Amino acid sequence: MPTVEELYRNYGILADATEQVGQHKDAYQVILDGVKGGTKEKRLAAQFIPKFFKHFPELADSAINAQLDLCEDEDVSTSFFSIVMSLIYLNSTTHWIAGDVPLKGLLPSAKNLMFFIPLYV
């Protein structure tokens, strides 16, 4: 399980890579593994997974499963944060909603949660 520092370091690798992000599959895999960590690691993973999702089509299934695991987390704040982050990035890529991606099933519940966003901001 990666630590907060490892997640930030791998985020930096991906963020600095600009056009060659897809060449850093190992850095993205570390971020995907962040879903197995504690609350802080999970929240970072929830933020970073959708941000770089479109650059790693070969890891799409793993990324979607990881994000769904976060959306179903026992900790309500982690679950809520993961749903919100997923919805924010839904607009930036069609990969999240193509085909029968299970994330579509979260939209009705996430729509209800959106009314509470001002309480958490």
Automatic annotation (TrEMBL):
Cellular component, GO, one term: nucleus
Keywords: Apoptosis
Superkingdom of origin organism: Eukaryota
Keyword Manganese: no
Gene Ontology molecular function: RNA binding
InterPro entries in UniProt: API5 (IPR008383)
GO terms classed as biological process: apoptotic process; negative regulation of apoptotic process
Protein name: Apoptosis inhibitor 5
